[in-house]
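Researcher: Here's a chain I'd like modeled. Treat it as a single chain, no partners, no ligands.
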Amino acid sequence: MLTPQLQKLISPVPSPTQKTEQTQTKKRKKMEKSIEIFDVIVIGAGIMGSCTAYQTSKRNQKTLLLEQFDFLHHLGSSHGESRTIRATYPEDYYPKMVLKSETLWRDAEEQIGYKVYFKTPQFDIGPSNSKALQAVISSCEKNSIPVRVIDRNTMFQEFDDLIQLPDNWIGVVTEYGGVIKPTKAVSMFQTLAIKNGAFLKDNMEVVEIKKDSLTGGVLVMAKNGEKFSGKKCVVTVGSWMNKLVRNMTGIVIPIQPLETTVVYWKIKKGYESKFTIGNGFPTFASYVEPYVYGTPSLEYPGLIKISIHGGRLCEPTDRTWAPTQSLDPLKKWIQEKFRDLVDSTRPVLTQSCMYSVTPDEDFVIDFLGGEFGDDVVVGGGFSGHGFKMGPIVGKILSDLVIDGETKDVELMHFRIKRFEKNSKGNLKNFDDQVSSSH
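Model: Modeled as a single isolated chain. Structure tokens:
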């Protein structure tokens, strides 16, 4: 019988290839012990990332949600007290997304046990010859959304004569409107994700994403030195999207950050209850320049939110936190439409928010491609109108990262490559499309 010492002497010496394989195996085992591996890593915990983490964790995927700031911070696009939900779009591919999203909002509310979505009619107004407003009516009809078209003579029966229309204007009334409480909604989806077993980490700024040569997945590196390994990754970082993607891949996604201002005005004393959801007052939008939108009095009793869809082009680190445009056109609009029922002399309150705007104001929902293939999915460029669709966008992103496809929505309009064919992106069928980048 050979002694252990003799056995060692006559054992075959590993070849260089075997040594390399053994070394890699040891490194992999060491790495697997030191870095936890997730099925899906979601970067960015605004409404889109939080909805995605909820959906992936709901499907039993080991999920990690990373946020560069505190959770529920005010530095991005998912904070504040109200967002409009409406199904009235000139583009006919958004209404079906809104309707699917409405169902998902209700499902989430039922799970959490409180409300974040408060329903009321939606009222769109503008000149009767507005191509964009006519496209809204056509889009609703294509998507089987009942609409009522009214003129100034029937305004009294509809909304107690609280809104005035010029002679050549019309109003479009639909029942799919309402107000969503954004900070509360983001918190809801984060809580539901945790209940599903997701892991959440804030103050975790991601500085690099690369292919993991050891696991074949994705390696995510934070500024503080921490590393996270995932089989798949979803990037939903809002106004930081272009910078992060460009730095890690060289790919330029034309998403421009923009600082916008939310504005609140005082309702005339004695009329405060008239402008509430309880009284049936609608969310509203005006299809003329400037594009004005608003919500009923809800978060601040006695005040009504009336703002311009637009703002100042800037980087998210270069915000003024002050009104970004002259308020004179907005004051004039309020005086014409609400007369003396709303004090248009000066706003009572302003709040800063960020948009991330694409040239065509359509979303970007796609695989990043390149060396990442289908392992990294991006969701961005929501252009100031995406919050309402957060639940369906989260479901789409989770479908893409888990199944490699989605059956909920046709993504043709949201592909990155659309900008290769035309730098302006999707062509619109109307020439008076409102723009957020005033």
